Amino acid sequence: MTTREIKLQDSQEALRLLGEKDARLRELERDFGVEVLLRQDASTGELRLSLRGSAARVEKAARRLRGELDALRRRAAPADARGFEPLNLDSPALPEDGLYRTHHGRVVRPRSSNQKKYVDAVAEHDLTFAVGPAGTGKTYLAVACAVDALERDVVKRIVLVRPAVEAGERLGFLPGDMAQKVDPYLRPLYDALYDLMGYDKVAKLFERSAIEIAPLAFMRGR
User: Quick check: helix, strand or coil at residue 60?
Assistant: First the structure.
């Protein structure tokens, strides 16, 4: 079971979000199959929504709630002295079946029942194996799940690991450091990262070691 909490600003925001007699709260429980409780800290008076259930269901419910809360706060935000709405840099709320919104604004979502099972398995388990023919979304969806987890602080780092297996052609000796030597084998992962996050953001994450390259042969003992 997984528990996730969402902080609310005050009781008025809770009322606008959940409706009279917490009607929206009951809808969330029914739609997502999770337990949702409104809690108040006895010492600070801080209000929090607590979501409890399976990891995949809790993540979906939390994503929906955050989207509704962001939209609610945008509508409630006052205009500045010139009459303009404040600039909001947050992405629009994802649809229910959305996994990630790319830097171009495109929503990544499972497109088949098997892809849906795959994404749910990644969310619920620490280790997931995917077997299937080329072009079925195994690598791309795995990278999308990893990027989503990194941006939500579920994980602190993404480690790109891949065995150096040549696809029918021998590359021979490759010059350069370790990263340059394994670069041809990691190209599908790079392509997915660049498509999801953009080149500049990926480069910054590499500089901060938030994304790391590690050939499978070097993972022993880590």
Answer: helix
Single pTM value for the model: 0.54
In the prediction, which pLDDT does 63 show?
A: 84
Tell me how many degrees the CA angle 125-131-135 measures, rounded to the nearest 5: 115
The more confident residue out of 122 and 94 is: 122
Distance CA 213, CA 202 (A): 13
What is the dihedral sign for C-alpha 203, 164, 108, 67? negative
Tell me the two tokens of residue 43. Answer: 């010492």
The β-bridge partners of 211 are 158
145-165 pLDDT, tens digit each: 999 888 888 888 998 887 655
* Topology adopted by domain 2-76: Ribosomal Protein S8; Chain: A, domain 1 (3.30.1370)
d(CA 26, CA 7): 18
d(CA 4, CA 59): 8
CA distance 171 to 160: 20
Ranges of each domain in the chain = 2-76, 100-218
| Pair of tokens at residue 154 | 């579920």
